Amino acid sequence: MRISRLVTAAALAAVALWSLNLPAAADPDGATAEGADRAVPVDQSLRTLATRHNVRVGTAVDMSAFTNDTQYRERIATEFSAVTAENVMKWQLLEPERGVFNWGPADQLVESARQNHQLVHGHTLLWHNQNPTWLTDGVASGEITPDELRAILRQHIFDVVTHFKGKVWHWDVVNEVIDDSANLRNTFWLANLGPGYIADAFRWAHEADPTVTLYLNDYNVEGINAKSDAYYALVQQLLADGVPVRGFGAQGHLDVRFGNYTAFQVAENLNRFADLGLETSLTEVDVRMNLPPDATKLNAQTQAYGALLLGCLVAKHCVMFTVWGYTDKYSWVPGFFTGQGAANLLTETFEPKFAYREVQAILAYSR
Ligand code: XIL
């Protein structure tokens, strides 16, 4: 009989242990008769659970929802230890007229972060989207010459970084400057200023605030691929030229149908940037799907969130895991990807999805 054989084996093992006089707790892998010490209750806020890892868990904040929706605002304070302005620190919103700044909403976010002991990830000093029309029209018509454009960029970076000096943890200095073919993105910045604009932007930001950590940030660079290879080469070049680049941000906008990773793949990519001396972050995580959601898609989403988080936790110098909004109620996805949505950790009514429970479980139980 199988059972009696098992019993016999167990009895023999017990006798062997007794005769060697070894306590059961001497197992070199740390197992005890009582089982592992799972002392961390899983049902705590993400920010509380994340303190075990020296990692900040953040969210992008929609400032109009922040102002109008108490539930949305309060949950940010209890759940997260970092915040990113979803829009209000972008050029179009900060400097809608040349030299005229609208600091109000960004200041409100920064002040709320201070009160709630959250760090602020600054997003973003330079991008090819969400620029004010005075800038884009001026460049297109030739009214703004390349020389002027360079001076305008320098001034904008100087004004913004100085304004938030000492209040911001990181700046995304440049956002999405490499395209999906792994070449420098063909934008009005590149066309008018040449490839040196990237180094210039970092140098100017560093001049304005030498203490803030300066990032490159992009999507589709979570694992090793042609695009992240191009960033790796770019960072090596910038460092060789003495440019103060200190951080690499992988956005983490995923789709359950493709672009998903294992934790190992994320960590091996982040680690090569860490080996160059950079810190890394997941800066804009969400995982969209074709609507309506079903169990298969939600499981794939859960796996994707888990892999990005675990990849960050096991990587050498990953300091932040930030989601691009935390409730489907205010997601950017349905407005940008036709027929898609359900990309966030909580539903539109703030109910936790599987992915939220997975993030909690990983934060609670991984070392
Ligand atoms: C998105 C915002 O979520 C939207 O509200 C806005 O209309 C467009 O931009 N990559 C980025 C973010 O770096 O700034 C983008 O945010 C999403 C993609």
Describe what you observe in this structure.
The chain is an alpha/beta fold and 367 residues long. The chain has 15 helices and ten strands. The protein has an eight-stranded parallel beta barrel, surrounded by five helices. Helix 8 packs parallel to helix 10 and helix 13 runs parallel beside helix 15 (354-365). The chain binds (3S,4R)-3-hydroxy-2-oxopiperidin-4-yl beta-D-xylopyranoside (XIL). (3S,4R)-3-hydroxy-2-oxopiperidin-4-yl beta-D-xylopyranoside binds next to loops. (3S,4R)-3-hydroxy-2-oxopiperidin-4-yl beta-D-xylopyranoside (XIL) is lined by residues 86-87, 175, 251, 284, 332.
Task: Characterize this entry briefly.
The protein is about 45% helix and about 15% strand. It is an alpha/beta fold and about 375 residues long.
Count of helical stretches: 15
Strand order, main sheet: write it out.
1-2-3-4-5-6-8-9
The gyration radius over C-alpha positions equals 24 Å
> Which ranges are low-confidence, i.e. pLDDT below 50, for 5 or more consecutive residues?
1-24
Largest sheet: 8 strands, parallel, barrel
Helical content class: 40-55%
